[in-house]
């Protein structure tokens, strides 16, 4: 048996905080060594933080990383541990995103990332250069390129993030060249439902290439990207370890690398494929002999037996229901995003929320409070200030709901009427218009803008983080006010559809029993900027609105294709009415793009986000003729 204990770390980094990031890695490396870990695996770009985006174009940003990598090597020199961690280097004018192999006080090698994603939220092709098959360079006297690394316990094949997502990635040639343990360093953002996709992909790659895979992912949030952490160890298709998500730390598992080689001998398909690769002229990846760099201590390791002591019977089922998994993942992701933005910017002292007594601001409050309970468990409410700013159209019902939930959460609550300011601003606007009259929509927008201005004034004076509370569905059709409810420093639920907002609130009401949530849900959703406003009456039923958004923005269907799909989805709704909803959605969607680009930074939880700098990049100025009759 060749027993190896693999430690998988999730590290919460801040972009550019090189020393602090390295300190976190050092702390975990020492804890791993104390736990008899043989191989410590850390995330992509863990020294610099991810995503650094165009900061990598600054030579100083690159230069500051190497001394920290050397410091890590020096301070772990006495540990019987091999560590692999992410770093960026500059080579002949090219920036490379690398996995650094460290042991015995030295940086033994650098393996650059080959597959550079430039889609969705990623822009790596703009900033980094590609690693290449057969690459053999040197950086500061350290081998840099397409290498394997031989230690006293086995042969490692390092790679970085996207390399594992390509069927044409480096894993195939490295496995055929003798790599047994593939180590993937990742910074893969949280996306709804993506955890299972990662899990299945890693199992597939481990089975296809007959390797053991150790996968480590970043955790935390930088700007609007949220990283859920979590990692895997998978041996030749069998899951060995899944690590916790949404928290910094490490988990470990023991594998027998002799099992990986034995399974190769049994798998005739793998052997034949390798023979064909060699015959076709496949270039063998060279192996660097690192057996003298460190002597690992594996005497205490025991054979990996199932905790339930059966190789044939299933382990106890600890999986969450689909409902719990969806809700808890979203809530964990958004509270992590809010909290890291609050802490890492170092610009704010508390959160500020304009409570309307409606669903969106309620969910935003509950997300901020979820973070606050972790940051200040003894008094979470002290981190949040809630305001209720009634106008002539505000109801006693929404005021009571807002006051109730603030009291239940222990959040300071203040009522500041905008009625006088509303009347003054209407009069001033009317003076400017002369003969023309204020439109009803202008009267509504005045209220929203007064509230936003007051929140900004409060924020400027007390260092408060003004949270924007709008949802994705209403944002997609411009059901929001520039200079008003579209404003804020951070948009918490701007990428959460309205139907999901309501689903989350139902879940939270069931699990917490808060009376304030029940009171909010008892009233139809509406902005209360005019008499008896109901959002679904002014727009369309929210399930249909969200379906329109998904089909048009996500699946890229034309209006005629959308009508066909919606007829199948909502057969109880008259076809002509559905057609009207489609036409209305498409018109409002394309007219509202100019609003999105003025919205604040938002937290990302899916592939379909309304953020021109991240996911859905649409021109502001465009003709709509192609949509007519389509």
Automatic annotation (TrEMBL):
Q: Biological process GO annotation list?
A: NAD+ biosynthetic process
Catalysed reaction equations from the record:
deamido-NAD(+) + L-glutamine + ATP + H2O = L-glutamate + AMP + diphosphate + NAD(+) + H(+)
Q: Name one GO molecular function term.
A: ATP binding
**Residues noted as binding deamido-NAD(+) in the record, renumbered to the chain:** 445, 474, 595
- Give the E.C. number(s): 6.3.5.1
What does the UniProt record say this protein does?
A: Catalyzes the ATP-dependent amidation of deamido-NAD to form NAD. Uses L-glutamine as a nitrogen source.
The record, for NCBIfam families, names: nadE
HAMAP family attached to this UniProt entry: NadE_glutamine_dep (MF_02090)
| Protein name per UniProt | Glutamine-dependent NAD(+) synthetase
What is the gene called?
nadE
